[in-house]
Specification:
- With about 120 residues, the protein is α+β, with helices and mostly antiparallel strands.
- The chain has 2 domains: about 50 residues; about 80 residues, Surface presentation of antigens (SPOA) (Roll).
- The chain is built from 5 helices and 4 strands.
- The protein is elongated and about 60 Å long.
Length: about 120
């Protein structure tokens, strides 16, 4: 797909997402007339892989400190214990949550999801 087509698709998705955020209840007339087109457009992007990142905290350290790290070293992070972790999709904040353990695996329980309008605004 060329860059222009991708830009056009992105513009269309942003416009549709803004429309969905403004009115989340579908209208029967739209479903009967143009709903098929929207479904087809949405199906174009449903299989696009996205990078999901959960950030526990951050820190900065000089290279000399980094080189001195060994097994058992502790790295102090910028966040306090108990503060919510941030969930990013392709480097855009979409939610905050808390760490959980499910079947011996770590996970994140979402406690605060960024509104659709704010998420669309981040795309600009």
């Amino acid at each position: 797909m060329s860059g222009d087509k991708l830009d056009d698709l992105a513009d269309q998705l942003v416009a549709e997402a803004a429309g969905m955020a403004a009115d989340s209840t579908p209208k029967k007339a739209e479903a009967a007339s143009g709903g098929g087109q929207k479904d087809r457009n949405l199906n174009l992007i449903l299989d696009i892989p996205l990078r999901v990142t959960v950030e526990l905290g951050r820190t900065k350290m000089p290279v000399s400190e980094l080189l001195n790290l060994t097994q058992g070293s502790v790295i102090e992070l910028s966040k306090l214990a108990g503060e919510p972790m941030e969930v990013y999709v392709n480097d855009k904040l979409i939610a905050r949550g808390e760490a959980v353990v499910i079947n011996e695996k770590f996970g994140v329980r979402l406690t605060d999801v960024i509104s659709p309008a704010e998420r669309v605004e981040q795309l600009r």
